[in-house]
Amino acid sequence: MSDDRAPILVGAGQLTQRDVEPDRALEPVAMMAATARLAAEDAGAGDRLLAAVDSLAVVNVFSFPYGNAPRLLAERLGIRPREELYTTIGGNTPQWLVNGAAARIAAGKAGVVLLAGAETVRSVVRARRQHVRLAWGGGDGTPAVVGEDRDGTSPYETAHGLVIPTVIYPLFENAIRARRGWSLEEHARRLGALCSRFAAVAAENPHAWFRERRTPEEIATVTADNRMIGYPYPKLMNAILDVDQAAAVIMTSAGRARALGIHPSRWVYLWGAADAHDHWFVSERVDYASSPAIRAVGEAALAQAGTDVGAIDHFDLYSCFPSAVQIGRDMLGIPEDDPRPLTVTGGLAYFGGPGNNYSMHAIATMMDRLRAAPGTKGLVTALGWYLTKHALGIYGTAPPPRPFAPTDGAAVQRAVDAEPAPALVEAASGRATIETYTVLHDRDGAPVRGIVVGRTEDGRRFLANTPGDRTVLDALVAREAIGGPGTVRRDGDTNVFDPA
């Protein structure tokens, strides 16, 4: 591949819409159009760059049910690309789209690619509360849907309440604590410190939803305003979805950028990229403190880029919950005491979590960081569902040491699929121990339900709920429960675990 085929990002745009009255709020596609224009201006090419777009992809929108968001966006921009795509659900999709677009550009199958996404959860919720009808929508036809569309949870998991991120990610977090041998108190302190560093980055980011520094103690201390949600995560450790945010990036080849008159100072190269997924369902994972898929995509992308994690200057590790950050850090081989910040945006709890599109903001922000410090390199991770689907990109302002070529995704996936995991038993009974767990709390902060991933005496894994007895639930959050004994029994369609 000649240098002319090198895939590059040339423009990025972001928009945060703060507490506009619902009847005056921009809808998601209008926000995408605004950020697309900002991206074209950022590239220094304006309308001529938008007019050259031949591939447009929109990240799945969950705040408003569009019939055909890509077509509507194209209409708003006055363009008609030959390819209009719409993704399935997944926070991995922005980086996954970048990786795929780079491969098509390098192969000469795409010329100028526009990637965009937006969410307006804040405005939609306010409109419902105020009984305001939103006159949004449009777009003829049905978009071409791309991406993995499997459900994120199995019927067995759903029956036991493993249905949303605030329930599932605490399972990973408690497993991390037990593996590290931290006390409950030390664990809370470490989580507070980690999150405080993210909040400090958001405080300096003009696009962040919350621009407020918070102390570790403030984040880790449970109060009426910082209620416990899924143990051990109080509210300030959870991704915030109640935002109106949009971001877009534009990609092309080095040769096309020259022809369009885009100055090389705007170019950001994709040095390396990879995608993979872990064992699909949470109940099937190798364990709950690691991710073989993140390790595999990191190794593949770094090898492709001809560099190592020690040479990366800037990171944005996907941060819906602290467990995602810690597992991503560990799988990439970043030391726990590494002074390099793990986010450029501030993360989903403080910058904001605009649905599936958060990582588009991370990529856009990374472009700004790299341009401000030419010669440096950045790494972005993105994930979908429950530490399930993973995409990773390595970026730099200098040309990479070797021509871009897609990684062998099938080989990466085969290696992950070969990782052994415990056998799963759905109807469990007898003596057992806790592998990991969480306790869910109501809006008043009272514990209401325990969820257990356990092991039978012969090592098989099962899911269970605990009795709703307040004494049992209080005990699970008062001392380390992982490894604790008990008995599991079948009760209708679910298992019940009784701690000893």
How would you characterize this protein structure?
By secondary structure, the protein is an alpha+beta fold. It has three domains: about 325 residues, Peroxisomal Thiolase, Chain A, domain 1; about 80 residues, no CATH class; about 70 residues, OB fold (Dihydrolipoamide Acetyltransferase, E2P). Helices cover about 35% and strands about 25% of the residues. It contains 15 helices and 17 strands. The strands form three sheets. A ten-stranded mixed beta sheet has the order 5-3-2-4-8-1-9-12-11-10. A five-stranded antiparallel beta sheet has the order 15-14-13-16-17. It has a two-stranded antiparallel sheet with strand order 6-7. Helix 1 crosses helix 3 and helix 11 packs across helix 12. It is globular. The N and C termini lie far apart (about 65 Å).
Which descriptors apply to this entry?
five-stranded antiparallel β-sheet; 500 residues; ten-stranded mixed β-sheet; 15 helices; Peroxisomal Thiolase, Chain A, domain 1; alpha+beta; OB fold (Dihydrolipoamide Acetyltransferase, E2P); 23% strand
